[in-house]
Amino acid sequence: MILRFLIRIFPLVLLAGLWEIAPRIGWINPEALPPASAVAVAWYRLLMSGDLVYNGVSSLINVSAGLSLGIVVGMAAGVLMAWYPAVDAAVSPLMKSLYPMPKSALIPVMILWFGLGAGSKIASIFMGCLLPVVLSSYNGARGVEQTLIWSALGLGASRRRVLWEVVVPGALPEIMAGIRNALAISFILLVSSEFLVGQRGLGYLISFLGDGGVYDAMFAGVLTVAAIGFFADRVYLFFMQRTLQWRE
Amino acid sequence: MSERSEKAGEYGLMALRVGSIVVVLGAWQLTAMAHVFSDFLLPSLSSVLLRLYHDLVTGDLIRGIELTLIRTFIGFSIAAAGGVAIGVAIARVPLARWFFDPLVSVGLPMPKVAFLPVFMLWFGVFDVSKVLMIGFSAIFPVIVEAWAGTQNIDKYMSWSALSLGVGKKRFLWEIALPAALPQVFTGLQVALPISLIVAIICEMQMGGQGLGGSIMTDMRFADSPGVFSGIVAIALVGMVLVKAMELLRRRLLVWHQETQSE
Fold this sequence. Notes:
By secondary structure, chain A is mostly helical.
């Protein structure tokens, strides 16, 4: 088991080894790619100085605020669109025409509206996460088997109960898949909006270190963000599989 | 419900459908004209449209779209070519699978934009780093779909081809790739919007004009009609690209059941 895991991740180990050796023996300029060990040391320093925690917490707060707002509003809008034809007719042309819009384009407007601080980041993340969640809830809720709804109604359940106990659970697999997309988008928007403006957050920390030429610390910051995004997705995936266990 | 009222209901829904967009646009114009918010926060729809028209006539708009699209497409082509090659290799060559599998499973869920400063450090702030950044961001979904598409070829089809004596190379070009095409295309349909998003982020961050660059310039000059017209332009470009991919998919996959069942 452990052996198989080691064989599986060996390519990663190989690359890490190459990353350590290549700058040291001069294949690559160590300014452009500080060796792995130097980056590890820089990461440890950042952690100990508190910069990593301070900016990391600020970033995580932005992501969770924007994402959870997007999930709540998006689910409500999507399910209501699927449930009431009038809401559908009024909202879905707007949603569908805005959906293909590259989400990053909204960052400048959010900066105009909400300033350089956390507000514009949360708003950008919210706007970016909203549409994927709306559309997946909409498709999920519309895909719920009509016979299930009819039987529940026929058995005397109120429309409200049917909505909560049949439609929402039935749409859950698709909703959760949509939220996974939104999670990925939220990190993209977080990092790019923090690169652009602000005095806080991991994106800010990275560009600050990069501008100052402290490249080993900059690499440490980049890898931290990548790792947080990666683990957030893994944790969510695990949670999603747990939640959807009742299917099948 | 009688047939007549059903029809009336349908017309009502259609009116809502068209009406909602008109209402939103009208509300935008009216709120701006009533100065509920300052012109800086919410420029009127008419001023934004005027600005778009102005940029169109002077040619700035076309130049911006051109620059952004060229970057997007070059980066997208890198992702498409590399992604299909790597994906097919993973599905068919055990060594490639051993090497790329962990890289892909780490790379796919990772926020790739975080590497922007690294690309700037390595490749500068001009087109090379933008294009490579786009390719790097968009390649993973293509790899995954190409891999899955090639892996899940109908067994009977590949057995019949092999037993009829098809060589390895012909099998790849005439069986494996066409059979994987629908799924490969799904990957490309995910990758193209990502390419556009990243192109715009790169232009915002590194400059170099294009739609993202000019929106950032307008923001710095607090020129909000410029920012809003930039967003409208970007939204239109995104919409056209997504639609074009859908049409292309229907064209390319004419022979596939997915198209014929429609």
